């Protein structure tokens, strides 16, 4: 990794004056059709506000929003730290309650390393279609829709930006789980994958064996669209716990984005979302599904993760290895769930490991 991370002491200034102008020069925005629910047509609506005009809302209603960054146009800026070699496209699958713009810093590093970047905002997130009017809540009726949406995005959009070169996956948290499901169900889409704190199983406050019965029962009695206990609507103030083991400038930057855009203020799960996350977890951990994985992967595990369970992450890696595919578990000590939001001394080796893994051209086998 021949470049330095952004200076945390001048983080906002660097983002405004260096990173964002460069990203705007190579940024494309688009919309794609959402997958249809079982037995019905795709439907949805965009959250109000955020500067979307009435005409735009009518044209994009029920569709999924994405942004892409073209490495060739970025290279035209002739930045000293940028790689002159195009290496392919990286698909970023964001986490629960996140949005594309949150990954601007990671996009910057990937572009510097010679990769185009494509980000789909999952249903119920960002500017993409929603099925619930409260912008704080995330609801989904079937987790398979996330998987179908991401797989179609990769084949229809990301392949174009790759231009025949490899397509890689960088999936965080919920996006890591969705990406893992794509690796199981569509084994040839990605050439390599990095799963960062993947939500192989979410923390619910209940034992993993009991949670499906409690959450599923709540959905059956009409609580599908209600907020789950322990979650809350968006609050503009940053909670003290959010600063623990984190880079304060990065956390404050993320929050500033949320405060400016109502579409970015998703902050809480509904019972249906948790129910579907648990169903996805059970599918991910079936050995028969892990046996289908063909894509070499690195799985980064945070050792102080408040959102996903560590043991299922480790189990997933072991089962993929047992199925004959290369999978490496990297434990990041004294780290938080959002590994890309840590201070530079912790984030630098993380970013380097991710890019080095994507850069490696040798074939990785389970016997290496």
TrEMBL record:
Q: What UniProt keywords are attached to this protein's entry? A: Hydrolase
Keyword Thylakoid in annotation: no
- Annotated ranges, domain Serine aminopeptidase S33: 87-341
Superkingdom to which the source organism belongs: Bacteria
What's one GO MF term for it?
A: phosphatidylcholine lysophospholipase activity
Instruction: Tell me the InterPro entries matching this sequence.
Output: AB_hydrolase_fold, Hydrolase_4, MAG_DAG_Lipase
Q: What is this protein called?
A: Alpha/beta hydrolase
Q: From which lineage does this chain's organism come? A: Bacteria, Bacillati, Actinomycetota, Actinomycetes, Bifidobacteriales
């Amino acid at each position: 990794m021949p470049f330095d991370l952004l200076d945390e002491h001048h983080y906002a200034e660097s983002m405004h004056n260096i990173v964002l102008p460069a990203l705007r020069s190579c940024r494309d925005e688009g919309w794609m059709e959402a997958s249809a629910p079982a037995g019905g047509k795709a439907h949805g609506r965009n959250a109000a506000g955020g500067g979307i005009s009435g005409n735009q809302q009518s044209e994009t209603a029920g569709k999924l929003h994405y942004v892409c960054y073209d490495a060739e146009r970025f290279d035209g800026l002739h930045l000293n730290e940028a790689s002159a070699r195009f290496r392919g496209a990286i698909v970023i699958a964001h986490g629960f309650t996140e949005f594309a713009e949150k990954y601007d810093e990671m996009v910057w590093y990937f572009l510097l390393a010679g990769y185009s970047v494509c980000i789909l905002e999952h249903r119920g997130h960002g500017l993409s279609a929603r099925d619930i009017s409260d912008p704080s809540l995330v609801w989904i009726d079937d987790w398979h829709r996330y998987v179908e949406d991401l797989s179609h995005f990769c084949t229809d959009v990301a392949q174009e930006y790759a231009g025949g070169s490899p397509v890689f996956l960088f999936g965080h948290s919920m996006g890591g789980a969705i990406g893992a499901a794509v690796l199981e169900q569509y084994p040839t889409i990605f050439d390599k994958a990095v799963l960062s704190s993947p939500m192989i199983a979410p923390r619910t406050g209940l034992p993993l064996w009991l949670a499906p019965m409690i959450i599923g029962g709540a959905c059956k009695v009409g609580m599908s669209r209600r907020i789950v206990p322990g979650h809350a609507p968006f609050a503009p103030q940053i909670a003290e716990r959010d600063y623990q083991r984190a880079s304060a400038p990065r956390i404050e930057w993320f929050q500033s984005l949320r405060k400016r855009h109502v579409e970015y203020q998703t902050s809480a799960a509904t019972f249906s979302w948790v129910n579907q996350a648990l169903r996805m977890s059970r599918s991910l951990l079936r050995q028969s599904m892990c046996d289908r994985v063909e894509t070499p992967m690195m799985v980064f595990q945070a050792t102080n993760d408040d959102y996903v369970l560590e043991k299922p992450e480790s189990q997933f890696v072991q089962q993929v290895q047992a199925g004959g595919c290369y999978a490496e578990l990297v434990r990041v000590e004294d780290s938080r769930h959002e590994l890309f939001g840590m201070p530079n001394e912790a984030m630098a080796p993380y970013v380097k490991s991710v890019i080095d893994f994507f850069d490696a051209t040798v074939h990785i086998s389970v016997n290496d």
